[in-house]
Fold these 2 entries.
Entry 1:
Amino acid sequence: MWYGKEAFDDLKGEKMEEFLSVVEGGHLSDLGGLTTPTSNRWATLISGCWEKTASERKSLTDCKSMGSQW
């Protein structure tokens, strides 16, 4: 929750179901088109964790640092 809004609040109904289905299947969903500041921050964090090359992925320290800035 961020400023009284849930993360990915702009994904509702079928869009949320599709998003969850893709992620639960082990794939990074298309995070384009998100509109809230909360969604964009989470999308940045998630994208950094899903880099194809392991050395380019965010570390736990990086993730913790990003989260503490919110």
Entry 2:
Amino acid sequence: MFHVFQREERMDSDHAEHSSLSLNYSSEPRTLRDENNFIQNVSQFFNQEDISDLVLKVGSKKFFAHKFVLAKSSEVFRTMLYDKRWQQAGLPEVDLEESEECQQHFEPFLKFLYTAEINICVESAVGILCLADKYSVMSLKALCTQYMVENTQSPKCAML
């Protein structure tokens, strides 16, 4: 009988735990995110020829890309790739005309669309900012602008 009593006591204690858990239960929906895993999963597809559905030709270089990734990141790419009025829409290879400076920084720019991160320095900031502006990648444009404000000096300040 002692064991049964202890067991009942445990059950009561378990029941009390469940009761307190149910008091903390909220019927309000919550959004759960796994952003790091999502970014890591998308980033593995960067410049992978065997699974790409698009080739971007920039100068003499070719980059293997995914229409979805480009379109989700840039309204300009979305229009270029899906608007039937755009002459290169639907083609498997798209030629992009970029200045020499922008050509040098196109790969890190494109990789940003897959990874949401970029290595930048004072020398590359303008080229990357130009690409972000041209393709309306607003988050990258804001990051470049912030970087430039924090890390560059105007010529007048340098002379002082």
